[in-house]
């Protein structure tokens, strides 16, 4: 299919798509639907459930053991047959005397805290991702609308140039220039339309929607969170600190595993020859001359050291990210205010005057195209600045996110 025909069809699709859009979705609704439908949150919640189950299991001690022993049978002499058989029924119990159970509980509780914080971070990241996708869809829609309007203006201008050339007022070169501008405008229309469709799909995936015409509702832009709390601790820092506590608890668990457990037993023995009975008791204790879990302890301590350095690194990066996000928001707001100032109104007035002058024969086509190009550049810059501001605010809100997310 020729590129001009393809561009025309895509442009027509863009024009007809706008009136048929589904009900726009607000940012708040998009966040609610994403939280309710995202598998990434469901997976994190399942990991929290698993950590809860491990916490309950960590409080369970070893099971008792029952044993039955039969002695002194099927031998020779007086032990022939079953007359001299001795039968012992005993119950034994392993005793954890090295603090293993409390160490297990500590590890499990710390892991449960890590899982809960990981779920919270996943939720915070999802909110940030939805905010970004929402802002990108709004910007892509604005760009597509601008490109559609520019294509319509270029088509009108090309038609005017054709009429003026046929009337002998302008040379044929002016008509060729107008038609080239129209081709560029239609190509930009097709490109922005494709980018808008991709942005729709991205937001639809996040909110769990199959609607191919999902659109972002126009509303109040997101506002940055208050950032005047010098003692604020972010979710990444809290998670890193929780992981450090897990590593410390595992050191204690490894040390407790070096203490041998004692097994006590007691039972009843029956002598067949005289039908007499007697109690039996016993104690067993491993001799720790080979395995003292030294390797396990050393590995746990090394993991603890790594977790401490990781927590220190996360704290430094979090402080940097918060400061950087704050500066980016301020810079984006300053840039947007400058772009939305008198310069935009002046560019719009320049186009109006250039159009009047061109229709009256006082301005050339090139002067009108230059004025229109300047206005388009200004409007695109504003759209990009709004998107940059939204991105900066999303990053800042992520850096200062709290439990209410």
UniProtKB/TrEMBL annotation:
GO function terms (MF aspect): efflux transmembrane transporter activity
Gene3D superfamilies in the cross-refs: Outer membrane efflux proteins (OEP)
Pfam families the record matches: OEP
Alphabetic keyword roster: Coiled coil, Signal
InterPro entries named among the record's database cross-references: MdtP/NodT-like, OMP_efflux
Signal peptide stretch: 1-22
Coiled-coil ranges per UniProt: 297-335
PANTHER family associated with the record: BLR4935 PROTEIN, OUTER MEMBRANE CATION EFFLUX PROTEIN
Family note: Belongs to the outer membrane factor (OMF) (TC 1.B.17) family.
Protein name: Transporter
Organism per entry: Erythrobacter neustonensis
């Amino acid at each position: 299919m020729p590129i001009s025909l393809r561009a025309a069809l895509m442009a027509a699709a863009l024009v007809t798509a706008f009136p048929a859009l589904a009900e726009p979705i607000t940012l708040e609704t998009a966040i609610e639907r994403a939280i309710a439908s995202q598998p990434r949150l469901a997976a994190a919640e399942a990991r929290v459930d698993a950590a809860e189950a491990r916490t309950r299991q960590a409080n369970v001690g070893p099971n008792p053991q029952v044993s039955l022993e039969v002695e002194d049978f099927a031998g020779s002499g007086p032990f022939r047959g079953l007359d001299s058989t001795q039968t012992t029924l005993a119950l034994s119990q392993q005793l954890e005397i090295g603090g293993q159970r409390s160490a297990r509980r500590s590890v499990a509780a710390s892991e449960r805290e890590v899982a809960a914080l990981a779920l919270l971070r996943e939720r915070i990241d999802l909110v940030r991702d939805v905010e970004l996708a929402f802002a990108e869809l709004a910007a892509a829609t604005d760009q597509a609308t601008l490109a559609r309007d520019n294509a319509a203006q270029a088509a009108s201008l090309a038609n005017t140039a054709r009429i003026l050339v046929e009337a002998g007022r302008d040379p044929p070169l002016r008509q060729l220039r107008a038609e080239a501008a129209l081709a560029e405008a239609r190509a930009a229309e097709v490109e922005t339309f494709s980018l808008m469709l991709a942005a729709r799909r991205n937001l639809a995936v996040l909110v769990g929607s199959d609607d191919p015409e999902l659109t972002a509702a126009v509303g109040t832009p997101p506002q940055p969170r208050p950032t005047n709390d010098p003692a604020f601790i972010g979710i990444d820092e809290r998670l890193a600190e929780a992981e450090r506590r897990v590593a410390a608890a595992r050191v204690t668990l490894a040390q407790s595993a070096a203490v041998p457990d004692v097994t006590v037993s007691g039972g009843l023995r029956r002598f067949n020859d005289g039908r007499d009975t007697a109690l039996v008791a016993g104690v067993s204790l491993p001799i720790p001359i080979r395995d003292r879990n030294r390797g396990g302890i050393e590995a746990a301590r090394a993991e603890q050291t790594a977790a401490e350095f990781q927590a220190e690194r996360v704290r430094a990066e979090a402080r940097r990210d918060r400061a950087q996000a704050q500066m980016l928001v301020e810079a984006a707001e300053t840039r947007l205010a400058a772009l939305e100032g008198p310069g935009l109104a002046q560019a719009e007035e320049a186009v109006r005057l250039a159009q009047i002058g061109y229709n009256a024969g006082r301005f050339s086509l090139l002067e009108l195209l230059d004025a229109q190009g300047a206005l388009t550049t200004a409007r695109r810059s504003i759209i990009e600045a709004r998107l940059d501001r939204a991105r900066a605010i999303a990053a800042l809100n992520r850096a200062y996110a709290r439990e209410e997310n």
